[in-house]
């Protein structure tokens, strides 16, 4: 398909190819984002002819993960690899919001110098240009991974209502579909447009899936709140720890504790009474303006005594039931393996203004075991 000539017949053929791919995407069952991404990368691979096509998702901390991949069989797999946020700088993410498709025919080709008219009041912006030469850092990055040509398309979804603060929803960058080739490759405009159209349909479906997942989480939270309030109103705080159906039955956790009128009721795996009292004092001192706290890592939340708790207690949810009394839920530490692409990322390698960006030299998987976190 990538060799379709730029003619009316070629354009029609590419649209037909996109229509078939769109039909296959729309026929997928709902509630399965990984499957949606798997089918997408296969369809983009068939349409564009690139040797490697990846779906790349940005996490909340802005680092990226390859969640789907279609590749030539002899190429090293990148599926499941994580990359630090600095691999795609903020300036690049801004450009992906403005220009949804970016093609590099040959990263090794010498760029053509752009001569600007000196009479222009402002420097010429090439943000919207598909002919813009790649940054030297990015060209080196591609070369280091054995890639010569690329096609990158952005995937945007609606921002959450609470992020925009109004009824007018904005858009945010969810991720990228990244295509790579080990030799120079040019995809004619009709096929690029067909791929972009496919990505727009994918974005609409993905947005629905993200919203459905958010609604399911919201319903679960509301159900939990309703059950908990009903138990508190009917049985008082002590009753929800002593009745046959107790707080452990409504929240997935390893242990729960009630600190009420200087007395303790403990269920499952919890800190000691003195440690719980210390946590309550810390909450009153550092989070007095809130009705509670939820964290999957007491260490990251800033609790000074977190290291003493050991692996048995790591994450915590706490709600204030009076001015000095609390209900706690605790989760144990769960080791999680994360495969990073290349050498271990150092937190100091930030994308700061004035800092010279260095391309990644290695793409071999680096395994990191994340500790002091509950799941």
What would a concise description of this structure say?
This is Phytochrome C. This protein has nine helices and 13 strands. It has helices at residues 8-26, 33-48, 90-98, 136-144, 161-164, 189-242, 273-286, 298-301, 306-309, and strands at residues 52-58, 64-71, 82-83, 101-104, 149-158, 171-181, 255-260, 263-268, 292-295, 315-320, 326-331, 336-341, 365-370.
Q: If you had to describe this structure to a student in words, what would you say it looks like?
A:
With 375 residues, the chain is an alpha+beta fold. It has two domains: 50-186 and 354-370, GAF domain (Beta-Lactamase); 216-331, PHY domain (Beta-Lactamase, 2-Layer Sandwich). The chain is 35% helix and 22% strand. It contains nine helices and 13 strands. The chain has helices at 8-26, 33-48, 90-98, 136-144, 161-164, 189-242, 273-286, 298-301, 306-309, and strands at 52-58, 64-71, 82-83, 101-104, 149-158, 171-181, 255-260, 263-268, 292-295, 315-320, 326-331, 336-341, 365-370. The strands form three sheets. A six-stranded antiparallel β-sheet has the order 3-2-1-6-5-4. The longest helix is centred in the middle third of the chain and has 54 residues, at 189-242.
